[in-house]
Design brief:
Elements: H1 2-17, H2 24-44, E1 54-60, E2 63-70, H3 73-85, E3 91-98, H4 104-123, E4 132-137, E5 140-147, H5 149-160, E6 167-170, E7 173-174
Parallel strand pairs: 2-3, 5-6, 5-7
Antiparallel strand pairs: 1-2, 4-5
Helix pairs in contact: 2-3
Keywords: Signal
InterPro entries: BON_dom, Lipoprotein_DolP, Transpt-assoc_nodulatn_dom_bac
Pfam families: BON
């Protein structure tokens, strides 16, 4: 049990350290918001669970991204409605695809692609990589964060240079 708590604390610390431009309170709120939204979605319909749907919930500054796959359009809509009911959600970007859930191999490929993108961003000193959250699902890269328009454009250019990216979806909040 202590090992689990230590790993959770370590993961939280790493996540918080990599999210610049927001208050500590906002960072902590986001850490709890995504799991709350995920639970609300799971409770809203039996087909919105891990075996029939693959739903990735991400939160940045109260903005929630729903990515992944669900087998029917009505489930996509139900997931969004459930997310909107959660206190603290400012906006929901419903990017769920009406498809069968992705395979474990596809998810591994997406994780590797996200790592390559974050590495490229951190290597480029013109991109505020620590202020940008990158989520990859089925080769589609979602970018969230609090940035200027110029920073968003530079980040997008970096992502375009990474092989394997199918599409880029910018969900930034602009500071200018």
């Amino acid at each position: 049990m202590n090992k689990t708590r230590l790993l959770l604390a370590f993961g939280l610390a790493l996540t918080l350290a990599g999210c610049g431009g927001r208050s500590l309170g906002n960072k902590i709120d986001d850490q709890f918001l995504a799991p709350k939204v995920g639970s609300e979605i799971s409770r809203s319909h039996s087909d919105l669970n891990d075996t029939t749907s693959h739903i990735v919930v991400t939160s940045y500054n109260g903005v929630v991204l729903l990515a992944g796959q669900t087998p029917r359009a009505d489930l996509k809509s139900l997931a969004e409605q459930a997310a909107r009911r959660v206190q603290g959600v400012k906006r929901v970007h419903n990017e769920l695809q009406v498809l069968a859930p992705s395979s474990p191999l596809a998810r591994s490929t997406d994780a590797l692609l996200t790592t390559r993108i974050k590495t490229a961003m951190l290597a480029d000193n013109t991109v505020p990589g620590s202020q940008i959250k990158v989520v990859t699902e089925n080769g589609i890269v979602y970018l969230l964060g609090l940035v200027t328009r110029a920073e968003a454009n530079r980040a997008t250019a970096v992502v375009q240079g990474v092989g394997g990216v199918q599409r880029i979806v910018r969900l930034f909040e602009y500071t200018d």
